Amino acid sequence: MTDKLVRKHDGAFHWEGVEVLAYKQEGSAPFKDVTRQVLFDDPSLAAQLRYFEVAPGGWTTLERHEHVHNVMVIRGRGRCLVGDRAWDLARNDLVSVPPMTWHQFHAAPDEPLGFLCLVNRERDRPQLPSPADAPAISAPLDD
Amino acid sequence: MTDKLVRKHDGAFHWEGVEVLAYKQEGSAPFKDVTRQVLFDDPSLAAQLRYFEVAPGGWTTLERHEHVHNVMVIRGRGRCLVGDRAWDLARNDLVSVPPMTWHQFHAAPDEPLGFLCLVNRERDRPQLPSPADAPAISAPLDD
């Protein structure tokens, strides 16, 4: 992070003083082609704003947790699972992930999906489905 | 607000189930041509995400407060004052407003300025400068 008051966007979803991070530790959970950037992490704010980018054809981990996610798409197109339904996503769409609700984000085959995700600074760790249960949980994404 | 998990953007900075509100009560503070929409206000999240839109030539109130603002531009162009400096703003730029720091957002003459603003749910009320002090505080915006 940086102490700069204004951090300019470079036109390609990178920002002054904001590092592009691994989404998660490799091998810790299934995912494909996702990066993470922490845009705001002010200790006096009770929430953090992160930017996740899923490359074309990539997807985030299928997971659930007690903490809620508030999501806004700011780049590209894709699809999300929230609970037992899937939705197409485009720029500026809003997604609310309630507590303990399975969710996953997929980029379109030919476009990235970039989204802001607002979370409380204090939050629980995600839970993963068993490999046997995962296909049924994510089935609505295939419809 | 709405219980919908996914709220689609209509292509013109309005969202399903999100009301366009007055920025502030008329006469409560000086401002010009600003609207407010509350995008996320989940009681289990400690912060709210709002969308403010300043019409071409408009401006927000010059003010300061203890709570911090985390801002991301998502539409148009403009200029902001934070403390004793001003910056040009374009889409996806990030602005941090520290505690008790004078700040103001102006749209460009020919374009709106639309921005997300992240704040704690619990926050203090803004303070205004005296009419005599305001011109000196906002002077960097004229450079």
Can you characterise this structure?
The structure is a homodimer of 143-residue chains. Chain A is mainly beta and 143 residues long. Chain A has 1 helix and 10 strands. The first copy, chain A, has one helix at residues 134-138, and strands spanning 6-7, 21-22, 32-40, 47-59, 69-76, 78-82, 85-89, 94-97, 103-107, 113-120. Chain A is globular, with a radius of gyration of 15 Å. The first copy, chain A, starts with 5 loop residues before the first strand and ends in a 5-residue tail after the last helix. The model of chain A has no long low-confidence stretch (mean pLDDT 95). The A-B interface holds A 4-9, 13, 15, 18, 39-40, 42, 44-47, 49, 67-68, 70, 72, 74, 80, 82-83, 85, 87, 89-99, 116, 118-121 and B 4-9, 13, 15, 18, 39-40, 42, 44-47, 49, 67-68, 70, 72, 74, 80, 82-83, 85, 87, 89-99, 116, 118-121. β8 of chain A pairs antiparallel with β1 (6-7) of chain B.
